[in-house]
Design a protein that fits this description.
Helices cover 65% and strands 0% of the residues. It is an all-alpha fold and 1215 residues long. It folds into 5 domains: 180 residues, Leucine-rich Repeat Variant, CATH 1.25.10.10; 214 residues, Leucine-rich Repeat Variant, CATH 1.25.10; 215 residues, Leucine-rich Repeat Variant; 249 residues, Leucine-rich Repeat Variant (Alpha Horseshoe); 63 residues, no CATH class. Helix 6 packs antiparallel against helix 7 and helix 16 packs parallel to helix 18. It is globular, with a radius of gyration of 39 Å.
């Protein structure tokens, strides 16, 4: 060592000195000598070994040690062996966690990595940092590795070192992390200084690197399932019994799943055995085998193409000629999975064989061509281009229109994606006749052959977008119109970004259509130029042309929805150039255009922070246009319902105060919209709404107070003083609390502190409250709680579920707005998990589940269905898959779900209401899928009716079906019947099942349905019971002679009923005839007009009442069951009768009153397009306690019946 240092001209005594100043002087001399000599003249290995001893890695002075690290970095610029590199890394590893040494150490590690490769450095650093006592050492070491990955690239050498020794559970966590953070293309900025070496790839000896980088997929190990592929399994796959073959395929599926979805390619004879199943005579097994092969392809990765390409590709593609759609779809699924592990050029020739084969049906050819169109992308080479051109030519000559159309779509896609020289070469390689035909096809597309085909409509230029964002200076949050030079500026910005036809402002309609048609192909350009496209949309909105306005709004909506589906978000530039104009133009004169503006704003809410969006909407509340003010207020109310009051209160522009200013507006519709917003704030915040509104004069205060007093919406009440004293471990106050009797409504029990805490705007506080509620619910769910305690718990279940629903809506709304993996506050997975847990445990308690009202059930079902409709918002949470599974359990699992445990009548009613009025916020494209989910739930409920009818109120169910038909109307029912509408077919199926099970007994439950003209359930009940098949009682036996006699008697009686002098006697005869043959006579009467039928009904009811009164004067008249009022009201009144079996008591009348109120609320919601809760139609009256005054109750029934009849007449008039 002394010789080495002396050779370099360094005094050893300086490095051995006890004074740090002298040691520093010595190291500076060493650094200067190393810098003076070139890399070829250095001996880095020997010098590094010397520095490890003097001043040594244990040097206490940070300046001296930093100088040592600088010398190591300089030495690493020359040739360095792995042994010397290991010594250097050993000296730097311990000091990487110290702030004074961190930068020199990082520079030294980078230099050593460039010399020997970062794979070796990472492996050494991992070993040393793992043994360090200081926990900061491994943390800082990982930070350096994270920086080295994008700097050097990623390769197998580092992969082996990074994941060596991981447990299977840890490997699964790594795989999940990779899935949540998809790898982007990384351009290395540092390289290993070895000739021919790929970044991050150095072999064990340090002489030759690995041939190249690999994907993230190579980081994870694969499991061999060769040992599980036994002779028994292979014999099952080859069995003559289809059940055994099916079991064998299922066992293969289980093997793939058990391996964690990652298997090794050593499958032995499994693939040949599965190949034989692709031609199975049982085509369902063939489809199942194709799906299994899809999973194997995904699990095996790129090796699948090498192992199975020659063996399976042709047999798999031949299944596209099958006449079963199930088999064809499974074959396409295998091709898609195969495309994930192989190139498209590898698959296109095989798919071509299915297109040109004569045995392939038209549907199979269309499916194959569509798959080729969807799979096209950059990088198609000559072999793939040949297959594409031949497929296009074969499709153009097919006799089926659908095949020719699919070929035309493939032609357009190929011309845009495949390089023109490849297409020209493929065209020239065809025979003479085919070459001419192909040339004509391309000439029609491009106007003269392939050469002039235009480039992409949008050219991605991210740098230009960043420059525009840097230069942008917003003038105001309010839209102030376009500047005079905006068209010229925008056209200048479009130069180099778009193709010429898109810059033609005269053809902007065609430009919008072209962009929509090619959205998937030019998506990168759309993202890079989104601000320019939105500015272009604003420019077209200012033209004043209606067709142009509608087209560009539809384009904007499609762009925002596509951006949401891609997981993107609106930048500040995008929002400020576009949204103020949307807000200002929202008050258009046509309903359709206003609806488009509102849909665009709602789409923006999922891409842009809602408080910032409300900052842009608030100026619209002060617009000169009254219609714009109303639209902005209604949009604000909808966002309050969806997101709660938190975003509005967090907004800087104070939208609640701006809404309060609208109460002074002279326009009544504007004041009404403002009151709707205030009501939404009151629902979320309670009495805090007054503080948010600020100072109001007397008139405005009275307006708000009257609106809130008449509100029918349930709000989350603030905890009262009494509730604050109740322990958090209870869910309801003691029922024995003394209070004076009152004829009015009974006061609601105070909300306990735990339930009130669930409504807290602080999510952490709400989570703790929900944990407390879960612990309180668990003993009841396990049967360890007394009946009295469970009853008390059920009394407050309504408030609990409504509060949890509101909190879950807020948390899930925050999850939808947060970009996945992006910056900002991430949504609370704990809040979502505990909210769903409260619902699940509450539903496990029968008394709690059955105590839920129809309104709460509707809201809960709506929330769960919306999550099932689009589970991407749940997957943004940390435990996304677990939350998706919990939602499925809550909704559909047997014995646990909402449909299984709650009141089935209320479930039917809630689902039928969702069929006719879906929740707000669902866009038109999602409606079919939403209806499918609702129909699946109704199918599950209907199947349960076949097993057990107990607990189902058939009268209420028929009323809800009747209201569904009333909501549609005759014309809409006819239209939907013509297109085989699934919701309408489902409701008819329910009615048919009821008629089949009840038979003619269904009429006893259908008496409350007032006969209508074709758009009610009455004709369907008659038809269903007539053909029901005898589950209910059959009509009384009547011979043909008696039937003829009864018919002749009815023909004689009916004309006499129209003459006043003979009417009384004719009615007597009809009464006696009906008592002998009730079914036949009722069926005959049903065919008469509404007025005549009502007249007959009243007359028969009076006669029946007279007979009943003569038999028992103390019994209420039985005519109430037939619709005749018991208090002497005049006949002909079209009011619903009392329920069968009612004794006329106060309790029975109150039950009927509740039924009428719920039906009236549903009818009102049908007409107005909303779904108000059935409760609280008359705020001052009690629904839960009878008043004891029978006269007042019947008077209330009369009042509600009159209002319902008027509402029905208004509905028919508007229809």
């Amino acid at each position: 060592m002394e010789q080495t240092l002396c050779t370099m001209g360094t005094d050893l005594a300086l490095l051995q000195s006890a004074k740090w100043q002298e040691r520093l002087e010595g190291m500076e001399k060493v650094a200067a000598l190393v810098a003076e000599r070139g890399p070829a003249a250095r001996d880095p290995g020997v010098l590094i070994q010397c520095l490890a001893v003097l001043p040594s890695w244990g040097e206490k002075n940070f300046q001296v040690l930093n100088k040592v690290y600088e010398v190591i970095a300089a030495l690493a610029a020359g040739p360095l062996s792995r042994r010397d590199a290991g010594i250097a890394v050993e000296g730097m590893a311990e000091k990487i966690a110290e702030l004074k040494h961190r930068l020199p150490v990082i520079a030294g590690l980078d230099a050593v990595s460039e010399a020997v490769g970062p794979g070796f450095v990472c492996a050494t650093l991992q070993r040393l940092a793992g043994a360090a006592k200081n926990p900061k050492v491994p943390a800082e070491a990982l930070a350096w590795v994270a920086a080295a990955v994008p700097a050097f690239g990623l390769g197998p050498a580092m992969a082996a070192g990074a994941l060596e020794g991981l447990k299977p559970a840890q490997v699964t966590q790594v795989e999940d992390a990779f899935r949540r953070n998809p790898r982007e293309e990384v351009v290395p900025t540092r390289h290993v200084r070895r000739r021919g070496a790929a970044p991050m790839d150095v072999d064990e000896e340090g002489s030759e690197p690995s041939p190249g980088a690999v994907s993230v997929d190579d980081l994870l190990p694969r499991t061999s399932i060769a040992g599980a592929i036994t002779l028994t399994l292979l014999s099952m796959l080859a069995s003559s019994n289809w059940k055994e073959r099916n079991t064998g395929i299922e066992q293969v599926d289980d093997l793939v799943r058990g391996a964690g979805g990652r298997i090794a390619p050593d499958l032995g004879e499994l693939l040949p055995a599965l190949k034989s199943r692709l031609a199975d005579t049982n085509r369902n097994l063939a489809a199942k085998a194709l799906l299994t092969l899809s999973r194997i392809a995904t699990a095996m990765g790129p090796e699948f193409d090498r192992v199975a390409g020659r063996l399976l590709l042709a047999p798999a593609v031949s299944n596209l000629s099958d006449n079963k759609k199930q088999v064809r779809d499974a074959a396409l699924g295998l091709l898609t999975a195969w495309l994930g592990v192989a190139s498209l050029d590898r698959l296109l020739p095989a798919v071509l064989e299915a297109v040109v084969a004569t045995r392939t049906l038209a549907d199979g050819k269309v499916a194959a061509l569509a798959w080729m169109t969807e799979s096209l992308g950059p990088g198609v080479k000559r072999e793939g281009a040949d297959a594409l051109v031949r497929a296009i030519l074969a499709a153009s000559r097919d006799k089926t229109v659908a095949v020719r159309d699919a070929g035309s779509a493939l032609l357009v896609a190929a011309a845009q994606v495949v390089p023109h020289d490849s297409l020209l070469a493929a065209q020239n390689g065809l025979p003479a006749g085919d070459k001419k035909a192909a040339g004509e096809l391309f000439a029609k597309l491009a106007g003269g052959g392939l050469e002039p085909v235009e480039a992409a409509i949008l050219v991605p230029q991210p740098q230009a977008r960043e420059e525009r964002a840097r230069r942008f200076r917003p003038r105001s949050l309010r839209y102030e119109g376009l500047s005079p030079d905006e068209p010229e500026l925008l056209e200048k910005e479009f130069q180099g970004v778009t193709s010429p036809e898109f810059r033609d402002f005269k053809g902007h309609l065609q430009a919008a259509d072209t962009l929509l048609a090619q959205l998937d192909l030019v998506w990168a350009g759309v993202v890079a130029g989104l601000d320019l496209i939105l500015r272009w949309v604003v420019l077209r909105m200012a033209d004043g042309n209606m067709q142009s306005l509608v087209r560009v709004l539809e384009l904007a909506r499609a762009l925002l929805c596509a951006l949401r589906d891609a997981g993107g978000h609106l930048t500040e530039l995008d929002a400020l150039v576009f949204l103020p104009a949307i807000v200002e133009k929202a008050g258009h004169g046509q309903d359709r255009v206003r609806a488009l503006h509102r849909e665009v704003l709602h789409a923006a809410a999922g891409l842009y922070p809602v408080p910032r969006l409300l900052d842009l909407v608030t100026p619209g509340l002060a617009s000169k246009s009254a219609r714009t003010r109303i639209e902005c207020a209604e949009f604000l109310a909808e966002r309050l319902d969806l997101d709660g009051a938190g975003p509005a209160l967090a907004s800087r522009s104070k939208p609640i105060s701006a809404v309060a200013a609208l109460l002074k507006d002279r326009d009544g519709a504007t004041r009404t919209a403002a009151l709707t917003v205030i009501e939404a704030v009151w629902v979320a915040e309670g009495d805090e709404v007054w503080r948010h509104l600020g100072r109001l004069d007397v008139r405005e205060h009275d307006l708000v107070e009257e609106k809130l007093r008449r509100s029918t919406r349930a709000r989350v009440a603030a905890p009262t003083a009494a509730a604050a004293q109740i322990p958090a471990s209870t869910l309801a106050p003691p029922a024995t609390q003394a209070r004076p009797p009152s004829p009015g409504p009974a006061p609601s029990p105070p909300v306990p502190a735990a339930v009130a805490g669930v409504a807290s705007p602080d999510v952490d506080e709400a989570v703790e409250a929900m944990k407390q509620v879960c612990s309180d619910l668990m003993p009841a769910a396990e049967g360890r709680m007394s009946a009295r305690s469970v009853a008390l718990m059920a009394a407050s279940a309504e408030t609990l579920f409504a509060t949890v629903h509101a909190q879950l809506s807020s948390i899930l709304g925050a999850g939808e707005r947060s970009p996945p993996g992006g910056p900002g506050v991430q949504p609370s997975a704990r809040g979502c998990k505990y909210g769903l847990n409260v619902l699940l445990q509450g539903l496990a308690i029968p008394d709690v589940a059955l105590s839920l009202s129809q309104g709460v059930l509707r809201d809960t079902i709506s929330l769960l269905l919306l999550r099932l409709l689009d589970d991407r918002s749940l997957l943004r949470f940390e435990e996304g898959p677990t939350l998706v599974k919990a939602v499925n359990v809550l909704m559909l699992k047997a014995g646990w779900g909402v449909l299984e445990t709650t009141n089935r009548t209320y479930c039917f009613a809630a689902l039928l209401q969702l069929l006719r009025a879906p929740p707000k916020g669902i866009i038109a494209e999602q409606l079919p899928k939403f209806y499918d989910l609702v129909v699946k739930c109704l199918i599950k409920l209907t199947k349960s009716l076949q097993a057990e009818m107990e607990g189902v109120d058939l009268e209420s169910l028929l009323l809800n079906i009747h209201d569904f038909f009333l909501f549609l109307g005759v014309d809409e029912i006819r239209r939907r019947s013509g297109v085989d509408d699934k919701p309408l077919r489902m409701v008819k199926t329910i009615l048919h099942e009821l008629c089949k099970m009840q038979g003619y007994g269904i009429y006893a439950h259908a008496r409350v349905i007032a006969p209508e003209k074709g758009d009610s359930a009455s004709p369907a009940v008659s038809e269903g019971s007539g053909g029901g098949g005898g589950a209910g009682p059959a009509p009384s036996a009547i011979s043909e002679e008696d039937k003829a006699a009864v018919k002749a008697g009815l023909k004689d009686i009916m004309p006499r009923l129209m003459h006043r002098s003979e009417a009384e006697g004719a009615m007597q005869q009809l009464y006696h005839l009906r008592r002998q043959h009730p079914e036949y006579v009722d069926k005959y009467i049903t065919g008469t007009s509404d007025m005549f039928r009502a007249y007959i009904r009243d007359g028969l009811a009076k006669l029946e009442a007279r007979d009943d009164g003569a038999q028992d004067p103390g019994t209420p008249p039985a005519s109430a069951a037939n619709g005749a009022p018991a208090d002497g009201r005049p006949g002909g009144d079209d009011r619903p009768p009392l329920p069968p079996g009612s004794d006329g008591s106060a309790a029975g009348s109150v039950a009927r009153l509740n039924s009428l109120r719920e039906r009236l609320a549903s009818a009102r919601g049908s007409v107005e397009g909303g779904l108000p809760p059935a409760a609280a139609l008359s705020p001052g009256r009690s629904l839960g306690r009878p008043s004891g005054d029978l006269t007042s109750v019947r008077s209330a029934i009369d009042e509600l019946a009159d209002r319902m009849a008027a509402l029905r007449r208004a509905s028919h008039t508007s229809g």
